[in-house]
Amino acid sequence: MKPLVPIAVALNLTLASVSLHATGPAHPLQPSVPRTVTVSESQTPPVIRAGLLQSTLIVLPAEEKVANVFAGDTVDWVFDGGHVASRFISVKPKTANGSTDIHIVSDHGNEYTLQLREISDDADAHYDSKVLIEPGDKAAKDRLAQLPVFVPASELDKAKQEAAAAQAAQAATLKSQQAKEETYRSQYPGSLHFDYLWDEKKGKELGLQQIWRDDKFTYLRGQFQETPALYEVKDKQPSLINFDFSNGLYTVPKEVDSGYLAIGKQRVDFHRSTEGR
Fold first, then answer.
1. Please, are residues 53 and 94 in contact by the beta-carbon 8 Å criterion?
2. Element at 162 (helix H, strand E)
3. What are the pLDDT digits (tens) for 182-234?
4. Rounded to 5 degrees, what angle do the CA atoms 29, 34, 37 make?
């Protein structure tokens, strides 16, 4: 038996430069219906009936793809795995009555060995047109449910390209966000309005230091011994309003035209000036 020779199936290696030296079949060859063969490490490799110059398609289980292929005779047999990683390998004998073995390694780490035989001189002229491989060992079946252990080079390159594209898109998004933040920070001081009026003497007694607003919020800052309650006044009717308070700063999630701070009997009224409205 000739030594096994690896086949670059992903490169569509067909060895077309080798001349045919077949004499032709004794009778017309006929394709058989597709059949399933079970491959087990503990059993003799199944025999695949190949027809002279006819293609036999070997198909791995749906969960697997071909990672590598080895064969004993790469001169009198053509092996074609296509240009991309797939479940399929095409086998074609170029001489009559030849035989060889083929050893397939899947991306899940399963190994399938088959015996190929050209049948031109057989009384039965039917050759295998399609052979579906089924693993016969439990360990091999279990591996089908796991993630692949081998990644085809084409898929690895694609994954690298997709990762690089994703990183570039993320970097572009981050740069855009940073540009927006820088623009906002540069323009933000112009959106601040210090147009509130209040009794500064009462404000000092309570601890109030400043009141201002931007386009969305109203802010009150001070040094308070206790946190005063904050009221908004509309139509001369006061009502408590929601706010965040931290380190002496009130942040009210809206523009307040008029209101007051109060602790007990102490009270400081404030309102926006007429020019600020």
1. yes
2. helix 153-187
3. 876 777 777 899 999 999 999 999 999 999 999 899 999 999 989 999 999 99
4. 110
Write down the mean pLDDT value for the chain. Answer: 86
Q: For 96, left (φ over 0), alpha (ψ -120 to 50), or beta?
A: beta
- Is the Cβ–Cβ distance between 20 and 93 less than 8 Å? no
For residue 19, the one-letter residue type is S
> Please, how many CA atoms are within 13 Å of residue 212, restricted to the half-sphere of its CB?
12
Mean pLDDT of 233-238: 93
Q: Is 165 exposed, middle or buried (0-12, 13-18, 19+ CB in 10 A)?
A: exposed
Residue 157, token pair as written in the block: 């390159």
Question: What's the whole-model pTM score?
Answer: 0.50
Structural domains of the chain ordered from first start: 30-145 (2.60.40), 196-272 (2.60.40.2500)
pLDDT tens string 36-62 = 999 998 999 999 999 999 999 999 999
- Identify the bridge partners of residue 104 per DSSP, sorted by sequence position: 69, 112
Cβ proximity of 110 and 75 under 8 Å: no
Provide the token pair at 247.
Answer: 């380190």
